[in-house]
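SAMPLE LOG
Freezer: B-3
Tube label: C17
Construct: single chain, 305 aa
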Amino acid sequence: MNQGLARYGIIGVLILATTGLLVVMLPSVTAFSIGMRATAPTMTAVFAATRIPAGTSNSTWTPVERDFNGVTMVLVPAGCFMMGSTEAQIDYAVELARKDDVDAQPEWFGDEKPVHEVCFDQPFWIDQTEVTHAQFEQIRGKPDSLSFTGDSEPEHIIWFEARDFCALRGARLPTEAEWEYAARGPEGFIFPWGNTFEANRLLYAGNIRSQIVDVGSKPGGVSWVGALDMSGSAWEWTSSLYQPYPYQATDGREADTGTRTDILRVLRGGSRYEVEDSARAANRGGGHPDAWFSSLGFRCIRSYH
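STRUCTURE (predicted):
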């Protein structure tokens, strides 16, 4: 994970102090914390009709949409992908980061290694966009402190609220593996659209003009399954605890930790206030479950049926 606001020195420290963010160290991992029940994904049933045929590429999969009580979700087929970043991909991340900070180092992205294969025997549905302000307010029942429109993503959402909202929909937060697979596909794209950064495909620090952002406003950034805004716009909560790779759903990182707030949950996707390297599909952030700040949202997934 990149150094995020930590790279801005005193300004970053001030932001940390007002948002509850901190710098943490995990074994062999440098992490910058941004900070219902987290259920490990089931990988038993095989749905042959929706499994990726051998040789399928991102470009040959045809997106499938379905309406769930007014919320559009897209199908993520069963299959495998390589999770994390190769040395070459980390070199590219450093190149992007150095446009903003000349001191960027490969070690900043050490939590994206080692690259490892993750497979899903069962397909799943994922929200086409981040949960909108209107959708969230229907459940939460109280106005946000800022004047966001109905189609914008809600702000200042803590992990517990995101988890509970998804549960009320009969869904759950994605694991970080599910999120990354939906974002980059079997070909392992660096970004949802391909392997080269293109500013016109996302909302990020280089082109943001307004604090209020409607979901789906950058259709050119669509992922292989038809999911929007998986780069930039808002950081997205996942169910996963922030732990070193390789990812294993059964190693405790998808455990229910109750009301504990001294742990970190993984955040994905970067935000409209982040720079280019944060928009990569493999980029990882970590936040305390009770942390809240601007440009933090989420999307839900549900089992295939």
